[in-house]
Amino acid sequence: MKDILEIASMEIGVKEKKGKGNNPRIIQYAKDTGFDNYKSDDSHWCSLFMNWCAHEAGLERSYSLGARSWLRVGMPITNPELGDVVVFWRVSPESWQGHVGLFNGYSRDGRIYCLGGNQGDQVSSTGKSQDRILGYRRLRLVEDVHFPRKILKKGSKGVEVKLLQDSLKKLGFEVGTTDGDFGQRTEKELIQFQLTNQNLTANGVFDKATREYMEIVLSGLISVKSLVDKVF
């Protein structure tokens, strides 16, 4: 699974071309994501870039060049993590105009760092006022999740653990920050997940049986609501 923040970071410095002509990289974003009518990098491209990043990461997309379209995508959240979508208003909160990027932390003076396209006419990480935030969204995978055939347990680290943590959160289990570190909180919430299936051993180890069951649940064959209701 590619990390959307890493994908966006690799594009830092891509800049629109002044005057005649276009930066072919920005036009490629449009081709890759099906925006066939996008022909000039003079047009606003923050949402174009966000759609491209989400596409590359296998996550939900807005399929719109409007920044505020991202308020209808993914899950609404109040406590953002690195890589979550953040939407800002421009002109006024009631206007149609906006800006969209990826949450990239806070500055010492309380501003929010946003990694996105069309910031200073390029892909960059820029500090913005929190007063202009319309909302945060967490994008979900659009394809069935298939975990690496690897046993994960307390002490494990890496992208496989990030995938497990994101999947648990998608199912309603509060593991906290997706940091790729299988700690006590991830273990506790995995046990809660295992308790929804009497055929699993609730030991906090992401073994073959737990992995196969989670893949079935994430595919939509079992209701997430009924799953969580079994525990709480």
Automatic annotation (TrEMBL):
SUPFAM superfamilies: PGBD-like (SSF47090). NCBIfam families: TIGR02594 family protein. Residues 158-212 form the Peptidoglycan binding-like domain. This is TIGR02594 family protein. It comes from Psychroserpens luteus. Residues 40-118 form the Peptidase C51 domain.
